[in-house]
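Aggregate trends can hide what the representation actually does to any particular protein. In the encoding step, the backbone of a single protein was reduced to a row of integers, each denoting a local shape. The record that follows shows the chain in one-letter code together with its fold in token form.

***
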Amino acid sequence: MTKLFEAPLYPYRRSPDQDAAAPVRHPVVIIGAGPVGLAMAIDLAQADVPVVVLDDNDKVSVGSRAICFSKRSLEILDRLGCGEEMVHKGVVWNVGKVFFGDRQVYDFNLLPEEGHKCPAFINLQQYYCELYLVERIRVLQAEGKPVEIRGGNRVSNVAHLDDGALLTVETEDGSYTLEADWLIACDGAGSPTRSMLGLDFVGRVFEDNFLIADVIMKADFPTERWFWFDPPFNKDQSALLHKQPDGVWRIDLQLGWDIDKEEEKKPENVIPRLKQMLGDDVEFDLEWVSIYTFQCRRMEQFRHRHVIFAGDSAHQVSPFGARGANSGFQDIDNLGWKLKLVIDGKAPAALLDTYALEREHGADENILQSSRSTDFITPKSEMSRIFRDAVLDLSEHHAFARPLVNSGRLSVPCVYDDSPLNGDDADGLPARTRPGSPVVDAPLGHSWLLDQLGEEFVLLALGTKAPDFIEAAGISIRGLSIPKPEIEDALRKRYLGDAEQAFYLIRPDQHVTARWTSFDESRIEKALLTALAKGDTI
């Protein structure tokens, strides 16, 4: 890696909090300056919620780590002000190919339709993602937004208070204490915060081991996701190949159960494996090597009084399917607006219970898909292997078998179908944009639908007119009207179907909360009360 990523981005500096006679209290403290913690800080700062990020490190992560960022994550990052930089730097891809042995059995396109601003996926090293997020925070600081990153600040103890949390923080100048109205733990899979509070994961840990190697090389492979079952170069195992920026390639190789992890990470053992895959004549350098096992686990509850868990600290899934960082971005997208309303006194604290409810559902969905991927990739019995191999053989010539192939079902946005925040659903409108679903992007002239929504409650009127603003339950709902002549085919198919007009009430996280085919302000107010957990729904 270059010196850019070796230099401290947020070096330790002594804070006035360290010299205070009593613990200083902050509205929100975030532990962890990884992608999820930084994104959470940006979301809150953009909403003028004061936030302090504590991290024991002072720079971006080492190694590519997470590399696949989904369309929904890019839409969230776009709202946070750094999506375009990531797409510009990243390797854009929509197509994947599946191989069995030495032959391709089929390919797939993750975004076959037109009319979306963001691609299905980009590949981008995690250190770039973190860099762009930190740079966005610097811009917000220059604009006077209330956000601070404290590098070299390691949280060594967390305790519950009746109305917040008490933190002990270690620095090179000694320890100090802080209080937080709300503490958000984004400190990774090994979450010290989780351990300090005596909490743990529940779920499955799988026995198989996988080698991740980020390799710098010149190669003419296309920008596609290639996955092999039982390739000639890694017999009876699996392999994955992805392109990243700067001539870096991600290679995953299944190693099996009983291995010496430290031995397998040594270059003298990694390089022969890679040469067997790439050929002796391909020149490459190792950038980063790691060994991992599949884990599909989560905390039983994501909220514990005034401490809230998000990202890998709350849930873990296998890397195949790109569900780790992407689900973490969906966590903060769900949490930010709810926490803002609670802090401002416009919603009860019960609204934060719906963060836990909705995102625990999202975690269960990801764990289910990841577990199925793992069981398909690594059969646990001879009968399972026979079934898998038969499915792969059939998929080469028969489309019906392809949905049964699971080489890591790729991350899709979560739909909160059973959320207590959902309101009315009019008959006859497309199921794709039902209450609980994330807004599906569509072109609007020279712009995009998602770009017009912002970070507030919006009443979207299609083929008709909505008031510019509606005041309800202490909240201002902005009206966004799209007259019939401006409705393009994509927008009509995704939101109207055969209907002539429709009204969609959209949450600040750009999920649909209710929809109607006629305007009724009393029903809109009732739906808003439901979305704020002010009704009898919680």
